[in-house]
Specification:
Blueprint lengths: L4 H4 L20 E4 L2 E6 L2 E2 L7 E4 L2 E6 L2 E2 L14 E3 L7 E3 L2 E3 L6 E3 L2 E10 L2 E4 L8 E6 L4 E13 L4 E5 L16 E4 L8 E3 L2 E5 L4 E3 L5 E3 L2 E5 L4 E3 L14 E3 L2 E2 L3
Parallel strand pairs: 1-4, 2-5, 3-6, 4-7, 5-8, 6-9, 7-10, 8-17, 9-18, 10-19, 17-20, 18-21, 19-22, 20-23, 21-24
Antiparallel strand pairs: 11-12, 11-16, 12-15, 13-14, 13-16, 14-15
């Protein structure tokens, strides 16, 4: 096993060791383009990857579930406990335990849209499957700067892209499938109105919550003994992009890191 220098300096003889090996694993529960599903009172002790994988689904609730580490195991899950890809509505997560996992407890995303071709100053070929009336934000990641906002007037599906016409005009953009280029975020597909309340996060790797979404509430949670930030609000590259989120962090208790 080869490690980076800073890792090997923190390892001593007889230390317990667990290797992340999720490459052929899949989520315990995988929800794909579904509606109105509730996970209630489930307990997970071990998994090769994550626990709940939510993709393009709405009305999903995870209530009183436990990702629980058994005494004889070094870890519980091998990836995110709740991994939520971009959707038009966020999940409700309440009264759960997240313990002993090897990645983020909760990871919620907004849709990133690469600009593949500029047909004109208000028509573009983009990487995502957009809909008419989707609201977009145009972002310069090199400077951490919002260029402007717009709405999709026309959306024509192509093979692996969408040709769109928008209600604003943008010129001289740097384009391409590259996170250093100007890009859209689909604010309509940003897991709007997510709820994370009255959960316990403890004794695990990375973040308690990695939030790349908007218009949600985080309330009444207990977070302790995590290896990284308790919560992180993130967008791409240099920016924290605070204006996008519109969420609340209320009555949460944090312990030592």
């Amino acid at each position: 096993i080869v490690t980076t220098q800073n890792v090997i300096e923190q390892i001593a003889v007889d230390d317990p060791f667990a290797m992340i090996a999720r490459y052929n694993g899949c989520s315990t529960y995988s929800v794909n383009q579904c509606r109105q599903i509730t996970f209630l009172n489930n307990i997970h002790y071990a998994g090769p990857a994550g626990s709940f994988g939510l993709r393009e689904s709405t009305g999903i609730s995870i209530v009183n579930c436990k990702i629980q580490q058994k005494e004889d195991r070094l870890i519980s899950q091998n990836a995110d406990c709740v991994h939520v890809t971009p959707s038009y509505e966020g999940p409700w997560i309440e009264g759960c335990l997240f313990e002993g996992q090897m990645d983020d407890a909760i990871n919620i995303k907004t849709e990133l849209v690469y600009i593949l071709k500029a047909i004109s100053d208000n028509q573009f070929l983009v990487s995502a499957k957009l809909r008419v009336n989707d609201e977009l934000s145009l972002f310069n990641p090199r400077e951490g700067r919002l260029i402007g906002t717009c709405r999709v007037l026309e959306a024509v599906p192509m093979d692996d892209a969408t040709k769109i016409k928008i209600d604003a005009r943008f010129e001289n953009l740097q384009i391409g499938r590259d996170k250093t280029k100007d890009m859209f975020f689909n604010d309509s597909k940003s897991n709007d109105n997510f709820v994370i309340k009255n959960n316990v996060f403890r004794n695990s790797r990375r973040y308690g919550m990695l939030i790349q979404a908007k218009n949600g509430i985080i309330e009444g949670n207990i977070l302790e003994n995590l290896s990284r930030h308790y919560k992180r609000y993130q967008s791409w590259r240099k920016s924290i992009y605070w204006w996008r989120y519109g969420k609340w962090w209320k009555d949460c208790c944090t312990g030592c890191c």
